[in-house]
Amino acid sequence: MTTIFTRSLLVTFTTLLAAGLAPAQAQVVTPIGTIQGAGALATPGTYTIEGVVTAVYAGLNPAGFYVQNDAATADADPATSDALYVVQTSPSVAIGDRVRISGAVQESASTPSFNQAVLTGPTITVLAASSPLPAFTVLNNTTFTVATAEPFEGMRVQFAAPVTVTDVSAVKSRGELNISPLGLVYQPTQLVDPNDDPASGTSSAGSSNVAAVLAYQAANANRTLRLDDGRTALNPLPIPYLDATTQTVRVGSTVASLRGILGYGGSRWRIQPLPGPDAPVVTTARPPVPTFGPIDVKVASFNVLNYFNGDGAGGGFPTARGANTPADFQRQRSKILTALVQMNADAVGLIEIENDGTGASSALQDIVNGLNQALGAGTYTFVNDGGPSSQPFNTDLIHCAIIYKPAALRPFGPALLPTVTGVFERPPLAQLFITNRAAPTDTFALVVNHFKSKASGSGANADQGDGQGASNLRRKTQTAALAQFISGTVQPAGTRYVVSVGDYNANFEEDPMDILRAAGLVVSGTPTSTSYVFNGQSGSLDHAVLTPNLLGHAAVEKWHINAAEPEFLEYSNAGAATDINSPFRSSDHDPILIGLNFRSVVTAAVSAAATVRFQVFPNPAPGALNFHLASPDARPLTLEILSALGQPVLVLHGGAEVLQAELSRRTAALLPGTYLVRLSGADFSQVQRVVKQ
């Protein structure tokens, strides 16, 4: 019987082997880093990996989860990623599962990879649950770029310093934000002059510095990535990352310690969020109305987003450029009026208001009626530009207008318009005013502008690829005509002070602004003072341009209520959900406020955190580098401060300690802007470009 049993067992075992049911040989486990490699693409093939599930995304397309080697099982090569995305239609694992997975790895532009290394057709074995997660890889904000992201693909990462929201345009439609580890992303021509290096030059022709503009643009792209919401659903609800109180997220909002998975999709590197305590927390704050010290006059400039009031009697909708329905117009009107009431300016230059004259049913009269209903009869009136049905010399559906408080100002002479033809679509409007509050009284002129946009142009007005957009030649022609209008018409009408405001459709260092500087005018503010966001980059299309004699007598502040806010808050998008009592996202451009004091120095009120007199420019990210004087000995030094036009502003003499103390005291009266500081002594000379905030 023993022999028979032995033979029977042998036959049975042999049969099992033939059927392939014998115990499997040990599988070869490949470290993920070996698969990922140090190049741009993972090595395709069939592999078995082991790791810990770090994140699960059932809502992505394709759905799946990330697996990462911990320190004990990684390949210890910092040039290779230790993580992979595993494609699984209905993920069957949980965060913290230690898993063994076999499947095919690919990385290509086609589905389901989309240029991310993925493992497909997975056979999954859960080896243990609730395993410790791999440590976060800390990314240095100052050195991280898109170009250096590959070694961290799919891994748990954490930025060492706060990241900044730079674009909010897709937060409602896709649940995504653009972020940067180095603060706001600026339009290149906000800081880099296409013609001049350094940018303090005033050339307005040529292309000698275009390479620097293009390099800055490339650097912008290299330091911008997406903060995703872990879903691919369109119009996700609730909208992620909104402030619980204000229901907004703004350009400039921050995440103090961003953690997540560094994934790739939609042709972008993106941070996929983690749940629980590692979830991104976005900090959003809205700014109050800027305030000033003692002033004689407060002036403002406000783009009112195609303010069309139909026929003025409740009909005429949809309008040519503005509201589609009476209800929409009332929402727009309420937000515009709320912003104007809170600005409480003595004179306001309005841009993008319907060009339908000055009659009782006009859009201009409608705004004045609304303000007077809110603030009291007669609080505001408008400047009559001489056009009962449309503005003279205007060829557009919108025009520039001025409203003012008769209690504070009275017109000195008639409104002024350039009489040149074929130059402006929307000519500048100027009005000289006499101040009622100052003793003795003084005069100043307010000029309101709206130059040709960057959106279109052909021939010589086509986009030249220099960062200035289309129709730059047209804007240059308009700028030259504006400078001539100011010097040849406005000032001879009876004033030495001119405040020229509006939408110049040109960033801080573009040709039109240099034409104004070359004409002896001062473009106020700094390159980092912005008013508009386009394609996720912040710039300043809106400016306050001053005659030099207003230096020290004017403070200029932008009220950031619009450009930083998401478009879904606009009346035309929000509909019945519009917050009609809020000024935020009442338009797409930020208003400008200017405080004027003709008798003494005027400064803007600033917070204790913003008391720096001068900062070296451009600043090293992410913060400012204060400008300090230093000298190895007590030898006498001369310090000169020159305006952006090269005009001497301040000259001081003495040792380094004396100059440093005097610099802090004597620069309080200077208008915010860009200056050159020249420090010289025996066998010593240094020039530094600085910005006064």
Distinctive features:
about 700 residues, OB fold (Dihydrolipoamide Acetyltransferase, E2P), Deoxyribonuclease I, Chain A, 4 domains, 6-stranded mixed beta sheet, 33 strands, about 25% strand
How would you describe the overall organization of this protein?
The chain is an alpha+beta fold and 693 residues long. It has 4 domains: 32-133, OB fold (Dihydrolipoamide Acetyltransferase, E2P) (Beta Barrel); 138-185 and 223-283, OB fold (Dihydrolipoamide Acetyltransferase, E2P) (Beta Barrel); 297-605, Deoxyribonuclease I, Chain A, CATH 3.60.10.10; 610-692, Sandwich (Immunoglobulin-like), CATH 2.60.40. 16% of the residues lie in helices and 27% in strands. The chain has 10 helices and 33 strands. The strands form 6 sheets. The protein has a 9-stranded mixed sheet with strand order 6-7-12-13-10-9-8-11-14, with no helix packed on it. Helix 5 (326-343) packs across helix 6 (363-375) and helix 7 (472-490) runs parallel beside helix 8. The radius of gyration is 31 Å and the shape is globular. Keywords: Signal. Residues 1-26 form the signal peptide. Residues 301-589 form the Endonuclease/exonuclease/phosphatase domain.
What's this, in brief?
Residues 301-589 form the Endonuclease/exonuclease/phosphatase domain. With 693 residues, the chain is an alpha+beta fold.
Counted beta strands: 33
Number of domain units:
4
> pLDDT average, as an integer?
89
Percent of residues in helices: 10-25%
CATH homolog superfamily of the largest domain: Endonuclease/exonuclease/phosphatase
For this structure, the CATH topology of the largest domain is Deoxyribonuclease I, Chain A
CATH class of the largest domain: Alpha Beta
Overall shape:
globular
Low-confidence stretches: 1-25, 606-626
Adjacency order of strands in the biggest sheet: 6-7-12-13-10-9-8-11-14
